[in-house]
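Hello support,

Our group uses your service weekly, and this is the first time we've seen a run hang past the timeout. The protein is Phosphoserine aminotransferase. I'm not sure whether the cause is the sequence or the server load. Input pasted verbatim:
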Amino acid sequence: MSRGFNFSSGPAVLPEEVLKEAQAELLEWSNARASVMEVSHRGKAFIAMAEESERDLRALMSIPANYKVLFLQGGATQHFAQIPMNIGFGGSADYIVTGQWGQKAVKEAKPYTNARVAATGEADGFLKLPPRDTWQLDSNAAYVHYTPNETIGGIAIHDIPDVGNVPLVADMSSNILADTLDVSKFGIIYAGAQKNIGPSGLVVMIIRDDLLGRPTAPMANIFKYSAQAADGSMLNTPATFSWYMAGRVFKWVARHGGVAAMGERNRAKAERLYRYIDGSGFYSNPIEKSARSLMNVPFRSPNETLDEKFVKESEAAGLLALKGHRSVGGMRASIYNAMPIEGVEALISFMQDFAAKNG
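Update from on-call engineer: The timeout came from a worker crash unrelated to the input. Re-ran successfully.
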C-alpha cells in the first residue's frame, strides 16, 4: 500500500516530514527513554516542549504580548458554548453566519448569551456572503463572532471585518496558519487542530488579556479561560500527543517560509483548481467567486450518478476523501497547508481523464 493524496476536510492531511519525525521519535522522545505519549505533562521535557511550541506559534503569527495562547481540549464545537460562557454571559453577542458552522455556533451560544444573527447568507443558500451594508451590529454587544472559512460550503470571508470597538471572535479551525493576518484586530482566535495544526483532540486559542477578566457563567474552573491561562493550559492532563504534533507542525511551517509562504502556496493551489473547474465545461463550483475558499473547494459533475462514480474511481486512484459533505453532496477537495501542489495536479489530471470518459 502507498500513501494517497488525502483531501479530507478533517482530520486532515499532515506534512509527511512531520509524520516521519513523529515516527522516528515514537518509542523514545527527547532523551526521555519513553514516548511523548507516556511521559508526564508536568515533567521538564514536556514543559519545555510546550513552552517552545507557544514561542514558535507566537513568532509565526506575530502574536502581541497582551494575548495569551492556550492549548485546550474539546474541539471547536465545545468552545461555541465556552466562549459565551466566558466573555458574553448574561449579555448579547452578534453572529455573522455564512454557513453551517456559524449556525451551530449560534445554537450553542444561546443558553449563555443573547446570540443575535446580525447577518446571514442563508437566503442565498450560503452561496454568497451577506453584503456588509446589511450587517446589523450592536455597538454594545459583548463580541462579534464569525467563521472566516466554512469547510462544508467552501465559502470564505477573506478580509478582517471592521466591527468597531467590539471584540472580534473568529473560528479559524480551517484557515489558521493558512495566510498572514493581524492578530491585534481580534479579541479571540480559536481553532480545532485537525485541519492545519495537527491531530484532533487539541484546540488552540489566542485570547486578548482584557477578556480574561470578564464575569463568567457559573462553571467549573476547567472551563474558565482565565484559570487555564493562569495554569499554562494544564489544569488537567492536556492532549499531550496532539500538542507535541502541533509543535512539530509549527516548526515545519517555519522551515517552509512561514505563514506568508503558506499563503502564497495556498492561493496558487486554489487558483489552479478553480481555473480548471471553471474552464472544464464539465465541473462546476456554486460559490460566488470573490468568496471562494482557499482551503475547501466543492465541485460537482453534471449529475449525481457521475458524482458517485467520481468518488469511487478517485478513491481507487489514490485520491482520498473527495466525497462532499452529506448536506451538500457532490465532491470537495480540502487543500490545507500540508497538501502539496503535486496533489492538486494529480486531482486535476484525474478530473480531466474522468471528464473525457464521461462527458
